[in-house]
Write a structure and sequence with these properties.
By secondary structure, the protein is an alpha/beta fold. It is built from 7 helices and 11 strands. The protein is globular and about 50 Å long. The strands form 2 sheets. The protein has a 7-stranded mixed β-sheet, with helices on both faces. A 4-stranded antiparallel β-sheet has the order 1-2-3-4, covered by helices on one side.
Length: 243
């Protein structure tokens, strides 16, 4: 995700690592804490990393699980015509890129709360991965808190693909836990059209979250595993609003 627009990012004194370590491209303090964009392995094209409050969120080395998040949701919609999808969390852009590459999707809405991440995609180094998708006429990028958007938006979606944390049991900020609470899941259910699908990315499976989904009135609850190069598989939790 490298573009000539690197100059748009401020130079941060003292943030450049040794040649064999990651290089900090930008660091911002915002309402939810510090968010950092780094690049490592620059000699081989570079891998971008996003760090929030010292917690590793994601990198651009392997987007299989983020892409599967979107593909699995579409597969659950059983050929619905021009389904509308909301992607919660822009991240490094894999989920958005997957949605925009699929002509079956209709309206594509991406909600991202971090202004820095929005900037890195719109006019910074991450444009190379997301630029084509953001210029797709079906795509709308919304700078907002996902929980607030779900509570207040009048739009209804056929799929919600959420990747804003490392999972329901491992949130980036404490207030994110409300998204996976009974009230938060009720907001997700209300934002879906009948028969719509909720897909939630997680770094590990959560039986407790599956129970919460069923208690919130979702059906067809299941967890799909995605093998990764090292460690336990990533997972996608899937559930549907009854038709």
């Amino acid at each position: 995700m490298v573009t000539p627009s690197h100059a748009a990012l401020p130079q941060v004194p003292g943030t450049h690592a040794p040649e064999d370590g990651p290089v900090t491209l930008d660091r911002r303090d915002g309402p939810h804490g510090e968010v950092v964009l780094r690049r490592r392995d620059a000699g081989s094209g570079g891998v971008f990393e996003i760090i929030a409050n010292g917690c590793f969120l994601m990198d651009s080395s392997d987007g299989r699980s983020e892409r599967l998040l979107v593909r699995a949701a579409l597969a659950e919609l059983s050929g619905r015509t021009d389904p509308a999808v909301l992607i919660g969390g822009l991240g490094v852009g894999f989920s958005l890129d997957e949605a925009a590459a699929e002509p079956a999707w209709g309206r594509i809405t991406v909600v991202e709360r971090e202004a820095a991440i929005v900037d890195w995609h719109r006019e910074g180094p991450l444009d190379e991965l997301s630029g084509r998708a953001l210029r797709d006429p079906r795509t709308a990028l919304v700078h907002a808190d996902l929980k607030e958007h779900l509570r207040t938006a009048r739009d209804r979606y056929d799929a919600l693909c959420l990747d804003i944390d490392n999972g329901p049991d491992w949130t980036v900020t404490r207030d994110n836990s409300s998204l996976y609470s009974p009230a938060g899941l009720a907001d997700c259910r209300a934002a879906l059209r009948p028969g719509g699908v909720l897909a939630v990315w997680s770094a590990r499976p959560s039986g407790e979250f599956e129970t919460s989904l069923r208690n919130a009135g979702f059906c067809r609850v299941r967890t799909d595993e995605i093998p990764v190069a090292r460690g336990v598989p990533d997972v996608v939790h899937l559930a549907a609003r009854p038709a």
